[in-house]
Amino acid sequence: MADPADSQERPSRSGLWLTLALAALAAVLGAFNGLGRLDQVIYDRAVMMTGRAADPEILVVAIDDASIEALGRWPWRRAIHAALIDRLNGARAVGLDLIFAEPDTIKAGDDAILANSLRRNGRTVLPVVLDRIRKPGAIGLPIAELAQAAASTGFINAVIDSDGVVRKAALSVQFAGDRRNHLAISMLEVGGESDHAQRLLKRADAEGRILIPYAGPPAHMRTVSYLSVLRGDLPPEELRGKYVLVGAWATGMGDDYPTPVSHDVSGISGVEIIANILQAARSDIAYQRPAAWWNALFAALPVLLACLALWRLSPKQALLVSLALLAGIPLAAWLLLAHASLWFAPTAALAGVALCYPLWSWRSQEAALRYMDNELRRLQREYPPVLNEARVPLANPNASLESRIGELRRALARVRNLRRFLADGLDGMPDATLVFDQDGRMRFRNQAAIMYFQRLGIRPPRVGRPAAHLLERTLSDEATRQRVADALSGRSPTDAASPWSADLEVRDHAGRDLILKCAPIHTAEGHFAGNVVTLTDISGIRQAERQREETLRFISHDMRAPQSSILALVEMAQEGSAAPQAREDTLKRIAMLANRTLRLVDDFVHLTRAESMVISAVDLDLGSLLQDAIDDLWPSANKRGILLEAQAPVPVAYARGDQTLLMRALCNLIDNAIKYSPSDTRIECGIEEEPGHWRVAIRDQGQGIAQQDLARLFEPFSRVGVESRDDVGGAGLGLAFVRTVAERLGGSVEVRSEPGSGSTFTLRLPKA
């Protein structure tokens, strides 16, 4: 059989390896910038959500459709551009996004006009085109005359991704042996903000590139028409100190590019892309991709969190955590882009987390099924079928989940049957049985235990109550409670040869004698799990032992004493020749002792019969029985001058009982009253009614009984208040007989007495 510890460690090891594998996969994908195209789509959506207000210091002069319509078709004369440059003299820097790669052959003097205008302005930057495809290494420069007149030049090449979208910009490149800056960087240097340019260049990667932080969708930047500036419609104050970009905007002539913020339109013009780069530099914002190992960490961390949740939480909670991670990863990527200008490709982490739940669920299901198969085999091997169950073969290890669930359902039915079998067996035990856990709290009680505590007069203990509370309410002896508490705590028994932790005779608060046994319970691994406690009521056995001792004492003393006296009297009569009167006295004494012996035997037999006989109860009239008892004992009372009478009227009082036993019980009470009453007194007999019972009262005017003697008055062989009376015989069985009859008929007997004031004995019986 497999080691339980090993079976528990195996799923843990497999979960660890699965976690490491998923985290490594996510890290590798993250290091290689995620899943490419899908990451680009997510990036585009994130950029659209991180818009900013347009920089008011940047102005785009657009060659729009209105300008084309007013100034004629493109290309325009360079003298017109010269006029526009003159209008822009107050600008901080002017970026002319127009290519002048060849001299003007139609209007030869226009080149000079434009060059003079560029010199007068002194802050104009002309574009350069770097050709890497058609003529590798070629640089598309403006004509020499214009290049010398311009303040600076800068390249305007767009960096296009594989899907045709412009997301990046090259700020500075080494080309044809020279270091070339982007048009926006050159404009910042011309405008006196080279510090902004340098900070932006430092944010670029090793290739001098950044992710363009687009401020908004197309036409987001502040734009004015070329025509309106040329006419002077725009006040000079609107141009003073601004970065002005002049570029094509009209339909069919602009260099539009798809960008992350232009999905709803065809694209965004090149001049506006330059404006966005310029604003990024002035705002000190540049989106960057972190180092590969940072991206790997960003991808692996959510996978580790998902695996930890799957390891520690319930399936429902783990699913919620996984869904939260799937939603949180893009949110985290967007927050990092918006507030830290870092773009972590999220698809690697998303793929890792998405794979976690199904793979981990598969692993958990395989581990659960494997454990289920092992436990089912163990259950079938260690616990045979009960309650006539058929032994069902185990499912095939390659069976489906439904088959395994069916097998588990049958196994659980067997366990329930076994538990019911054990529970019914414990409930059927005649002794009170309690089961406690290792913390000393009760976990099970059988029906006999419930009945025992009800007879004790306390509420049956509830499941989960501590044993100390139960022992305090049950056992009266402190030392016994401590010993049982030690046994319930799992301590080793003092007698190593006995499996019982406690085996002792105790007495409860009701005075019942009990045998208390306490046995430990252990798990399959041998660990202490609790105790089983049984309470066996041996009060009947102890009572029988006491009765046996009393019987032996009765035979050895009360029966033997009169017989010895008779033998002594007979021997005296045989030895001497006494006078006739003496012989007559001897015979009288022998007769008296013989009658006493007969009465003792008769009382003992009737008491034994009352205790053991099966009573066939019938409806009886207590009034008639009382009148008969008075009539039977009237001669004895009359002989001593005692008035024996019944209080009139005697009611018809029906009770259920045995006529012979009740008649003798009433006679015993009246006979005792006659024996212990002085001559010339009165004995009253009456019947009173109370709810549900009849009370038969016998009142005498005798010497009374001391309070300390009342407690043992109804015990067998107990004679109270007769030590000075030689004329009263008996062994103290009459009142014990009365009590036995009353209790067996569901009633009771009680006495009220004070020395010198007489006694009242009351027999209380249920109504029929």
UniProtKB/TrEMBL annotation:
Q: Where in the cell is it found?
A: Cell inner membrane
Q: What is this protein called?
A: histidine kinase
User: How does this chain sit within the bilayer?
Assistant: Multi-pass membrane protein
Q: Which UniProt keywords apply?
A: Kinase, Membrane, Phosphoprotein, Transferase, Transmembrane, Transmembrane helix
Keyword Transferase belongs to the record: yes
Q: Which PANTHER family match?
A: HISTIDINE KINASE (PTHR42878:SF13), TWO-COMPONENT HISTIDINE KINASE (PTHR42878)
Write down any Gene Ontology CC term.
plasma membrane
Asked whether the UniProt record includes Ribosomal protein among its keywords, one would answer no
Record organism: Achromobacter arsenitoxydans SY8
GO terms for molecular function, please?
Answer: phosphorelay response regulator activity; phosphorelay sensor kinase activity; protein kinase activator activity
Q: Where is the Histidine kinase domain?
A: 554-768
| GO annotation (BP), single | osmosensory signaling via phosphorelay pathway
| Enzyme Commission number(s) from the entry | 2.7.13.3
Task: List the InterPro entries hit by this protein, alphabetically.
Answer: BphY/WalK/GraS-like, CHASE2, HATPase_C_sf, HATPase_dom, His_kinase_dom, HisK_dim/P_dom, HisK_dim/P_sf, PAS-like_dom_sf
Quote the Pfam families the UniProt record gives.
CHASE2, HATPase_c, HisKA
Enumerate the transmembrane spans.
Answer: 292-311, 318-337, 343-362
**What does it catalyze?**
ATP + protein L-histidine = ADP + protein N-phospho-L-histidine
